[in-house]
Write a structure and sequence with these properties.
Length: 145
């Protein structure tokens, strides 16, 4: 099932984030007990189920590690990834260093993006939507051909 939707959330002082039940259920059935948190593109964080994280790792394994850019990406991506347990209240704890790297503040938004969820600083997401939301048709034509 593809992950989708937007969910405004608040980070608490311990950087815990409540994952909505509908989104948890979209990750897998039954809902996952852990999620991988990684650095994402455009100053966001990405959340992957264990299954999707492993599928991504397998796709990368097919590439040659002799390419400098690829090796740099692998090092940065996998060294930033952390497996986080989902607690009984449906929350995960975001690592402090990733919170800083993604410029997350108290107000954040979770968005479903096909095989992952992204966590954005709410203001940065609003800027992104302001820049590209009105150009949806153009963005779609450029991306899909």
């Amino acid at each position: 099932m593809a992950l989708s939707g937007q969910y405004e959330r608040t980070l608490d002082e311990k950087h815990r984030l409540a994952i909505p039940k509908t989104l948890r259920d979209e990750f897998s059935n039954p809902a996952p007990t852990h999620l991988y948190i990684t650095k994402g593109y455009d100053d966001c964080l990405e959340l992957y189920s264990l299954e999707e994280f492993n599928l991504f790792a397998e796709r990368l394994r097919e590439r040659s590690s002799s390419e400098d850019e690829f090796r740099r990406f692998e090092r940065l991506f996998f060294s930033s990834a952390e497996n986080s347990a989902i607690d009984s209240q449906g929350r995960i704890r975001l690592p402090e260093r990733l919170v800083r790297e993604a410029f997350l503040e108290r107000e954040v938004i979770l968005i479903g993006v096909r095989n992952r969820a992204e966590i954005w600083n709410l203001n940065k997401w609003k800027e992104f939507q302001g820049s590209y939301g009105a150009k949806f048709d153009q963005v779609a034509r450029e991306a899909l051909g």
